[in-house]
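Query structure, 192 tokens:
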């Protein structure tokens, strides 16, 4: 894996609509910018990209959690995303994000019963991507339906992939739309 750069971004919300958020809600994005070995060419077997996804799941999952300074069981929400440079194809992002990345990402967070929400797109250096989030163990907890917008000014280059994993230690600030709460969740099936 040829990683050009690793970045970690922590977003902390302390006030919302003039109200203090105590404790603040926090999200951390761990980002890897790496060489796309298949840029500019069609390749039938994408197994090497799937293997890279497996490596990135643990690496970035731990970096995001550590940026928040929390233990694995304190992680609440997660999400993943990938921007493919203009010489790549969306299937390259799919290969990174889906077959093997999930297990090591979940392991970094101590559990992860719910589906990891994801998004992928093709883009140029500096474009944004909105990483979708939901609770890691019970996807129907509405207070955790959220996202984090990420951008890296010089990435991805045309022959690169920008991979993002996001972890939170909380839901949205001031949640009040009802639905299942953390206290009501059973954490059995990844849904409720």
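Result returned for the query:
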């Amino acid at each position: 894996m040829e990683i050009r750069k690793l970045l970690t971004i922590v977003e902390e919300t302390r006030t919302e609509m003039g109200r203090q958020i105590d404790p603040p809600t926090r999200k951390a994005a761990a980002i890897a910018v790496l060489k796309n070995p298949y840029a500019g060419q069609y390749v039938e077997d994408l197994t090497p990209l799937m293997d890279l996804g497996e490596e990135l799941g643990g690496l970035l999952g731990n970096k995001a959690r550590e940026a928040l300074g929390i233990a694995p069981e304190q992680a609440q929400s997660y999400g993943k995303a990938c921007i493919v440079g203009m010489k790549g194809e969306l299937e390259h992002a799919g290969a990174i994000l889906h077959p093997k990345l999930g297990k090591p990402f979940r392991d970094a967070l101590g559990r992860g019963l719910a589906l990891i929400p994801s998004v992928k797109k093709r883009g140029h250096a500096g474009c944004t991507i909105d990483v979708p989030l939901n609770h890691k163990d019970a996807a129907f907890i509405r207070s955790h339906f959220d996202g984090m917008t990420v951008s890296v000014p010089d990435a991805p280059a045309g022959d690169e992939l920008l991979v993002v994993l996001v972890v939170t230690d909380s839901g949205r600030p001031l949640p009040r739309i009802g639905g299942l709460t953390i206290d009501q969740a059973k954490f059995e099936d990844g849904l409720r």
